[in-house]
Write a structure and sequence with these properties.
This protein is of the alpha/beta class and 253 residues long. It has one domain: TIM Barrel, CATH 3.20.20.70. The protein is built from eleven helices and eight strands. Helix 6 (136-145) links the parallel strand 5 and strand 6. The longest helix has 19 residues, at 171-189. The two termini are 17 Å apart.
Length: 253
């Protein structure tokens, strides 16, 4: 069954805007769980712009559902992951000047180093994931380095959906969806798990949720944004309902 992972980074972003103690992202993780989230995603950035080290420790101590640790492939982050042992660690690209992650990880350009980092995580008993663009060469490289999961970057699809007036049948939208569909098929043929995420929201999520074999969708900003008006439990509940409704009517049915 398709699962929803809720990214709580933007709760920490709001807290850090005032350098205070609220809102608490760890409390947000509990609220998301109560709203029906299957997992919690957080990204400890090298510049600590939102999630802080203490948040990571508390999340590891208190989260009762799957914990997905997004990280740059650095020795510091690998060491933290190996210590706290989240259920999944996802390697992502990271830039100091980007507002949010702007593209997939380039595995091809750093296979040897990433293979070593993946091995370290696997030795610690952590499921390993990579965040990549919907490109066959990157999928093949992910298999070579031993990744267990590929999360496909859905930003291009989401931006096309928005730019075409939220028309799910616009040619540009269908073209991006076809790339993700093909990527998902290739991922599964290599024996890896097919996840997806980035810039998904309440309007564009259902076509993704209908794709064959997609296991998890990771969503953060749109859920936290909606929570401002309806509360986090309800925002998660609404997203989960949309995903399950779509998954019950897969493509071709």
């Amino acid at each position: 069954m398709i699962e929803l992972g809720v990214n709580i980074d933007h709760v920490a972003t709001l807290r850090q805007a005032r350098r205070t103690y609220e809102p608490d992202p760890v409390w947000a993780a509990s609220e998301a769980h109560l709203g029906g989230a299957d997992g919690i995603t957080f990204h400890l950035r090298e510049d600590r712009r939102h999630i802080q080290d203490r948040d990571v420790e508390r999340l590891a101590e208190t989260t009762q559902i799957k914990l997905n640790f997004e990280m740059a492939a650095t020795d510091e982050m690998i060491a933290i992951a190996c210590r706290i042992k989240p259920q999944m660690a996802m390697l992502v690209p990271e830039g100091r000047h980007e507002v949010t992650t702007e593209g997939g990880l380039d595995i091809l350009g750093q296979e040897a180093r990433l293979k070593d980092q993946i091995a370290r995580l696997a030795e610690a008993g952590i499921c390993t994931s990579v965040f990549i663009d919907a490109e066959l060469a990157q999928i093949e490289a992910a298999a070579r380095i031993g990744a267990q999961v590929c999360e496909i970057h859905t930003g291009p699809y989401a931006h096309a959906f928005h730019d075409r007036g939220r028309d799910a049948e616009a040619p540009a939208v269908l073209a991006e969806l076809a790339k993700i569909r093909a990527a998902g098929q290739a991922i599964r043929e290599f024996g890896m798990r097919f996840n997806a995420g980035h810039a998904l929201n309440y309007y564009n999520v259902q076509p993704l949720a209908r794709l064959p074999g997609v296991r998890e969708l990771h969503i953060g900003h749109s859920i936290v944004s909606r929570a401002v008006f309806v509360g986090l439990r309800e925002a998660v509940r609404e997203m989960k309902a949309l995903i399950r409704e779509a998954a019950a009517r897969p493509e071709g049915v």
